[in-house]
Amino acid sequence: MFRDDFVWGVASSAYQVEGRDPEDGCGKNIWDTFAEEGRILDGKDAYTACDHMHRYKEDYKLMKLLGIKAYRFSMSWARILPDGTGRVNEKAIAMYRDMILSMKENGIEPYITMYHWEFPQALQDKGGWLNEDVIQWFGEYAKVVAENFSDICEYFITLNEPECFVGLGHLSGVHAPGLKLPYKDVFKIAHNALRAHGQAVINLRKYASRPIKVGYAPTCGMAYPATDSPEDIEAARKTLFGFHQPMDNWTWNVAWFNDPVFLGKYPEEGLKKFAEYLPEITDEDMELISQPLDFMGQNIYNGYMMRQGEDGEPEYVDREAGAAKTAAGWPVTPECFYYGVKFLYERYHLPLYITENGMSCHDDVSLDGRVHDPNRQNFLDLYISALQRANDDGADVRGYFLWTFLDNFEWDKGYTERFGIVYVDFKTQKRIVKDSAFWYQKIIESNGRELTVNKKTRPILFLNPVFKEMIWGGNQLAEKFGYEIPSDRTGECWAVSAHPNGDCTVREGEYAGRKLSELFKEEPELFGNLPLDRFPLLIKIIDAKADLSIQVHPDDAYAKVHENGSLGKTECWYILDCPEDATLVVGHNAGSREELKEMIDQKRWSELIREVPVKKGDFIQINPGTVHAIKGGLMILETQQNSDITYRVYDYDRLSNGKPRELHVQQSIDVITVPAPSAEDSVSHAADLPANTMNELIACDYYKVYKLTVTEPVSFEQEHPFLIMSVIEGEGLVNGQMIRKGDHFIFPSGFGKVDLQGDMTLIASSVK
Ligand code: FCB
Fold first, then answer.
1. Are 201 and 145 in contact (CB under 8 A)?
2. For residue 135, how far is its CA from the centre of ligand 1 (angstroms)?
3. Mean pLDDT of the chain
4. Hey, which residues does 9 pair with through a beta bridge?
5. Which of 56, 177, 414, 484 could form an S-S bond across to 30 if both were Cys, CB 3.0 to 4.6 Å?
6. pLDDT at res. 491
7. If you write DSSP's letter for every residue of 255-295 in order, what string do you get?
8. Ligand 1 center from residue 419 Cα (angstroms)
9. Whose CA is closest to atom 4 on ligand 1?
């Protein structure tokens, strides 16, 4: 769980949202020039952007309405210092002060980023980041920021993503100022940027009117392991802080931009690899760069998967086909928030804020006038859940700033990427709150408790049946249910069983391969924490090609004493299929126990046993003590107590492997109920019950059984300790997953809403 004072915020940058005004006194910056040169997609510019400079009061009210507690925003250097140094633009100071004050009026804590990429053009003309004077220039800007805002703002961040503005701006030239400089220059720029950061930290603290908190916000893709094995984890850690990038991409390096700041030294491996390109690096430089910070910001959007290769070295692992991506084509990899955050914290050990994270989606206004962005909600849910895990495992995570509040100007991509949780119609500047913002509101209000991960959503447990060969079995379990059976003498499919004689395993998902008996013991909450020493039910499908023996089951009390603590057996049958003139044995005709004994001794079977006619769809409850037998030709779904105790009274003198099967005459005589209740009372006709509702077939001490025929969509809340379902006819969907005849599954406790549709019949069961 996140700390009570966890900071829930949103992030933005000046250039991406503010816009301009002919009267604003703003100096020109490198992005204005870049736009003038037509280097933004579709020839766009940020002259208006979100017009936030005229609408911020409304925007903060909207933030307040949505429960947002903190806002990381940036100040435009050239707005404050139009020439980069010297003259201060008082209109800018007034605007930013008013912004901060109105944030605070709305209960929003300001976090100022000093530099989010819009370098003053006047200073670019003097060489920009390549000119060593940039350290003093940036220091001067820091002084102005501290003097003017430290009385009303406590949190300051120096640089946003140096990896980006150094690399994209000066190596690949994709971002302003659009340069493709030689490596030597780019390394110098990086070094100067880090020194400028250090100088800013010094000046922010020196000129602040009170103690303030200062941090830094680098970015990078995070390496995460393909599995949880120590080898793969090490491969990911090594790669994350290593130097695997090709030279034309070298700035995407975590250690190079973090180690000097947080650890006071450049990493050895990099110093070696880059030696020929490096500027002079002095001890004074390192001291300047590594000014103590109060927190570390990290902008994390995605990661890449690593494992240990056969040669012991880390190797990249491709994501599976069709793995999720954002509209920007960035991989959706929540793992980076668990492992990335853990790795960063282990190495740098400073309180950590996620200073940016979010996704672009293809958002549009729907016919209902709203903006539905379930992909973003899912992304955030997955990522923030992973962050919570990292936090719970010891990383000191203090806050999360979602990128971003308003759809805005996405740099070289212009307005083609929508990252906001609030939709902006750029023609009218109308704001429409997207669904994800309402979701985020709930997360904030609950301090993360409403994350799906904390709501313990539980999967449907699909089971692998176990098959039993029997002398009376046949091949209908293959013919009618499509199962792969061991032979054409397969009598029983143990479809839901935790019995040691046939323990089902979970077919798929997070519990795949686990035995039902184990799950019941080890994850009791899945089954409503029932106070039982074993899973209580056993569901079978029986294919009786020949008659089953005449038998009887003991009750719990008798089984406990005579069967080594086993449960007795109460069971019930739903007739899946049978011939026209089918019968079952249910009950007997003996008037007293003496008569019963006599009839058994004298093998007067036809006189003793009671046969009743049955049809498809009949339902029969077999209480302990009931003499019964399934006759050849029947297919039955049986719901019973989790027990395998049967007393065989008579087996038609059949031989199994050349020998008669064992009989249990004495036990049978002990437990048979005398006289038997009337047969009619135990058979009910369940074929034509109403569709699309749960029809209760029986509720006894041991189970409740229902029949559900689905012809229209059916929804209900799963409120039993667990609910077993078996599809006995047809096919359909359960919560979006395809199910068909022969599938058996369990909805765990607290599963929530079940949605079924299709054309199918199911038998369901639970305990009382
Ligand atoms: C980050 C930037 C931010 C925005 C997001 C999508 O790299 O800091 O301005 O562009 O990406």
1. no
2. 24
3. 97
4. 70, 401
5. 177
6. 97
7. HHHHHHHHHSS--HHHHHHTGGG-----HHHHHHHT---S-
8. 9
9. 410
